[in-house]
UniProtKB/TrEMBL annotation:
Cellular compartments annotated: Cell membrane
Designated name of the protein: Cadherin-12
Species this chain originates from: Burhinus bistriatus
Domain Cadherin, chain residue ranges per copy: 4-84, 85-193, 194-308, 309-413, 413-531
Cellular component GO terms, alphabetical: adherens junction; catenin complex
Length: 718
C-alpha cells in the first residue's frame, strides 16, 4: 500500500505505478494506493521486482512528491522436487571388491531457495539395490555393501536412488534416478580342462606345420583375464609337435613340427599345460592358475610317395664326356609297410633336359649328348620318382650337374702390347710386363709359366723373366741397340698353363727400337728418322714425299695404259670371223653348249650325211619358207617324222637341239629290236590306237589324229 502525506482522503491525489511488471504482474489502486498481484508469481522464474510510484494532483496532473522506488521480493515455498540432471547413471566396480569400495557419486538439484527454510535441503536414499550397495544420505556417494561379489555369478546390477527435500521429512518432495552398475572382471579363476585326456588321429602324410588337432581349457573370466597360453610339457613325443593359441577361440592348436612315419612309430603321448597370461597377485592364495591334460596321438598309415635319399643332388661331369657315360644316380624308397618298386624319369620342361637320360629302374643318370662347358656350365632339372603299385604317388627332386672344364685352350697374352726398347738400354732392364689369359675355366691355384722358345733362347737380345705370379717381364740382355742395324725384334714367348693336359702357345711380341734421352724417355720411333740427315727441315721432307708420290702416280698410269692396249689387240683378233685359228685357252660350255658343234650328230650318225651346214658359226639371218607337204591319209608315221626332221635340218634358223631329231631314231642293230609299234608287221587295219587317249594331254593330238583316220576308214562297215 502506498500513501502520501498530502493525501487528505478527499480524492485529490492520484497514485501511479511503473517499473518491472507494472500493469502486467502488479496493478495499483489510483485512489487508495493499494498494490495487487494480478497473476501467480514464481520465485524460481523471478525472485524480485523493482517498481517506481508517484503521487499526482488529480486536477493539475502535477506530481505532489518526488517519484519513489521500491522492491517487491517473492517469498519462496517448497514447490520444486529435487532432480538428477545427469541421470540415469552408468558405473562399474571390480568384482571381489571389499565392502565400502567406491562406485559412483550422484547429485540432485532443488530449484527452491536454499536460504529459506528446508525447501532445498536434499537427502539421498536407496529404494532398490540393497543389500549389495549403500549410499551416503548427504553426499550421494554409492559404495559396495557386500564383500566378494562375483562377476561370474551376477554381472549387472540396477540401483534406484531417491533424493528428497525438506531434509527427508514428511511432506517433502522427492525425485529418483537409476544407476546401472557392472561388475568388471578380475583374474580370479584359473583355466581348467574339461577332460584329462584328449585323443587325436593324425595321418602320417600330414605336412610339417599343418594343424592336426585342437584342445581347449575353459576360463570363466573375461577379456585379457581369460587369455590362455598352452605349452607342451617336455616328455615322450613332445619334440615332434608344437602348440599355439588361437586368439579368437582361446583354443590350443597342435601343429606338426617334424614328419610322421607310421612304420617308425604309431602313437605319441605327451602333456599340455594351460595357464593364464595375466595374473592378479591378490588371488595367488587361491591356487596355481594353470591346468594340465594328456594328449594321445595315433598315427594313421597312409600310402605315401617314394622318398629320395637327399633333398637335392649335385653331380659333376667333364665336358666332351662320351655319350652314355654314367655320371651319378638318385635313390628313392617306398617306406610303406608293403614296399613297392620305384620308377624314375626326367621331368621334361625344355630342350636342355634332353642332354641327359636316366635309367628307369636303377636311377642312374648318363649323358645323352656331348657337353660343352663354354656353352652351358651348369644344368638344372628335376627327377620324378613314382611307385609301381600307384603311379599317381610321385615325388620330385632337383638335380644340378656342373660341367667341369677340360683344358682345351692354351693360354695367350691377354692384350696386344706395344713394346719398345731404347737404343741406350742396359742389360737386365725390364721393358715390358706381360700377363696371360685362358679361355678355359681356370681352377683355383692355376698358374701360367713364361719362357722363350727354343730358337730364341740362343739369341743375345732379350730374355723372359717369369715372376711366378702369372706375370713375366721382358728384359734386355745386351748393352745398347741400334735402329740403323735393326729396328724391329720379334720375340717368341711360350706360355704354358698348369692344368691337365698341359696346353701351351707361342706368342710373338714385336719390340721396336727407339731413340731415348738419358732418363729413358722415348724421343722418336719413326723410321725416316734413321736415314735422314739431322739438319733436314720439315719443308724439305714434305717436298721429297710429294716427288715420290708423283713418280708413283706416273708409273701406275703407264702400266694401266700398256694393259689396256694389249687387251684391245687381243679382242680384235678374237672378233675376226675369218680367222680360223682356235684359241685353246677358252673353255667351252660343256654338253649344253650346242653352238660349238652339232650334238645331234653324236646321237644319230645319219645326220652327218644329211646335214652339211656348219653349226660352229652363227648362220645368216635368212629365213626360208617351210614347205610342208600335205599329209595323206594312212601315211606311215615314220615318213611323217622323217619329213619333219629333214625340214628342220635344212632350215638354218632352226635350233640344233630339236627334241624330235634327237629321239625319233632308235638306232640300228638293237638286240631287243624295235619296241615301237610303227615298224610292226601288223596292218593298219589291225592296229588299235585307242590307248593313246589314256596317255594324257601330251598325246591328245596323236589320239585325235589316228582316231579321226579310223573313223573315216572306208573299208570298215559302220
Amino acid at each position: 500500500k502506498l500513501h502520501s502525506d498530502l493525501d487528505k482522503g478527499v480524492g485529490t491525489v492520484k497514485y501511479t505505478l511503473s517499473g518491472d511488471g507494472a500493469g502486467t504482474v502488479f496493478t495499483i489502486d489510483e485512489t487508495t494506493g493499494d498494490i495487487h498481484a494480478i497473476r501467480s508469481l514464481d520465485r524460481e522464474e523471478k525472485p524480485f521486482y523493482t517498481l517506481r510510484a508517484q503521487a499526482v494532483d488529480v486536477d493539475t496532473k502535477k506530481p505532489l512528491e518526488p517519484e519513489s522506488e521500491f522492491i517487491i521480493k517473492v517469498q519462496d515455498i517448497n514447490d520444486n522436487e529435487p532432480k538428477f540432471l545427469d541421470g540415469p547413471y552408468v558405473a562399474s566396480v571390480p568384482e571381489m571388491s571389499p565392502v565400502g569400495a567406491y562406485v559412483l557419486q550422484v547429485k540432485a538439484t532443488d530449484a527452491d531457495d536454499p536460504t529459506y527454510g528446508n525447501s532445498a535441503r536434499v537427502v539421498y536414499s536407496i529404494l532398490q539395490g540393497q543389500p549389495y550397495f549403500s549410499i551416503d544420505p548427504k553426499t550421494g556417494v554409492i559404495r559396495t555393501a557386500l564383500p566378494n561379489m562375483d562377476r561370474e555369478v551376477k554381472e549387472q546390477y540396477q540401483v534406484l536412488i531417491q533424493a528428497k527435500d525438506m531434509g527427508g521429512q514428511l511432506g517433502g518432495l522427492a525425485g529418483t534416478t537409476t544407476v546401472n552398475i557392472t561388475l568388471t572382471d578380475v583374474n580370479d579363476n584359473p583355466p581348467r580342462f574339461p577332460k584329462s585326456i584328449f585323443h587325436l588321429k593324425v595321418p602320417e602324410s600330414s605336412q610339417v606345420g599343418s594343424a592336426i588337432g585342437r584342445i581347449r581349457a575353459v576360463d570363466p573370466d573375461f577379456g585379457k583375464n581369460a587369455e590362455i597360453e598352452y605349452n607342451i610339457v617336455p616328455g615322450d613325443g613332445g619334440n615332434l609337435f608344437d602348440i599355439t593359441t588361437d586368439e579368437n577361440t582361446q583354443e590350443g592348436v597342435i601343429r606338426l613340427k617334424k614328419p610322421l612315419d607310421f612304420e617308425t612309430k604309431k602313437a605319441y603321448t605327451f602333456k599340455v599345460e594351460a595357464s593364464n597370461l595375466h595374473l592378479d597377485h591378490r588371488f595367488h592364495s587361491v591356487g596355481p592358475f594353470k591346468d594340465t591334460a594328456t594328449v594321445k596321438i595315433n598315427v594313421l598309415d597312409m600310402d605315401e610317395p617314394p622318398v629320395f635319399s637327399k633333398p637335392m643332388y649335385t653331380m659333376e661331369v667333364y665336358e666332351d664326356t662320351p655319350v652314355g657315360t654314367i655320371i651319378g644316380a638318385v635313390t628313392a624308397q617306398d617306406l610303406d609297410a608293403g614296399s613297392s618298386s620305384v620308377r624314375y624319369f626326367i621331368d621334361w620342361k625344355n630342350d636342355v633336359d634332353s642332354y641327359f637320360t636316366i635309367d628307369a629302374t636303377e636311377g642312374t643318370i648318363a649323358t645323352n649328348e656331348l657337353l660343352d662347358r663354354e656353352s652351358t656350365a651348369q644344368y638344372n632339372f628335376s627327377i620324378i620318382a613314382s611307385k609301381v603299385s600307384n603311379p599317381l604317388l610321385t615325388s620330385k627332386v632337383n638335380v644340378i650337374i656342373n660341367v667341369l672344364d677340360v683344358n682345351e685352350f692354351p693360354p695367350e697374352i691377354s692384350v696386344p702390347y706395344e713394346t719398345s726398347v731404347c737404343e741406350n738400354a742396359k742389360p737386365g732392364q725390364v721393358i715390358q710386363t706381360v700377363t696371360a689369359a685362358d679361355k678355359d675355366l681356370s681352377p683355383a691355384g692355376q698358374r701360367f709359366s713364361f719362357r722363350l722358345s727354343a730358337e730364341a733362347s740362343n739369341k743375345p737380345n732379350f730374355t723372359v723373366h717369369d715372376y711366378r705370379n702369372n706375370t713375366a717381364g721382358i728384359e734386355t740382355r745386351r748393352n745398347g741397340y741400334s735402329r740403323r742395324q735393326q729396328e724391329l725384334y720379334f720375340l717368341p714367348v711360350v706360355i704354358e698353363d698348369s692344368s691337365y693336359p698341359v696346353q701351351s702357345s707361342t706368342n710373338t711380341m714385336t719390340i721396336r727400337v727407339c731413340r731415348c734421352d738419358s732418363d729413358g724417355t722415348i724421343l722418336s720411333c719413326n723410321v725416316e728418322a734413321i736415314f735422314l740427315p739431322v739438319g733436314l727441315s720439315t719443308g724439305a721432307l714434305i717436298a721429297i714425299l710429294l716427288c715420290i708420290v708423283i713418280l708413283l702416280v706416273i708409273v701406275v698410269l703407264y702400266v694401266a695404259l700398256r694393259r689396256q692396249k694389249k687387251k684391245d689387240t687381243l679382242m680384235t683378233s678374237k672378233e675376226d670371223i675369218r680367222d680360223n685359228v682356235i684359241h685353246y685357252d677358252d673353255e667351252g660350255g660343256g654338253e649344253e653348249d650346242t653352238q660349238a658343234f652339232d650334238i645331234g650328230a653324236l646321237r644319230n650318225p645319219k645326220v652327218i650325211e644329211d646335214n652339211k651346214i656348219r653349226r660352229d658359226i652363227k648362220p645368216d639371218s635368212l629365213r626360208f619358207p617351210r614347205q610342208r607337204p600335205p599329209v595323206e591319209d594312212n601315211t606311215d608315221i615314220r615318213d611323217f617324222i622323217n619329213q619333219r626332221l629333214q625340214e628342220n635340218d635344212v632350215d638354218p634358223a632352226a635350233p640344233p637341239y630339236d627334241s624330235l631329231a634327237t629321239y625319233a631314231y632308235e638306232g640300228n642293230g638293237s638286240v631287243a629290236e624295235s619296241l615301237s609299234s610303227i615298224d610292226s608287221l601288223t596292218t593298219e587295219a589291225d592296229q588299235d590306237y585307242d590307248y593313246l587317249s589314256d596317255w594324257g594331254p601330251r598325246f591328245k593330238i596323236l589320239a585325235d589324229m589316228f582316231g579321226e583316220e579310223e573313223s573315216y576308214n572306208p573299208d570298215k562297215v559302220t
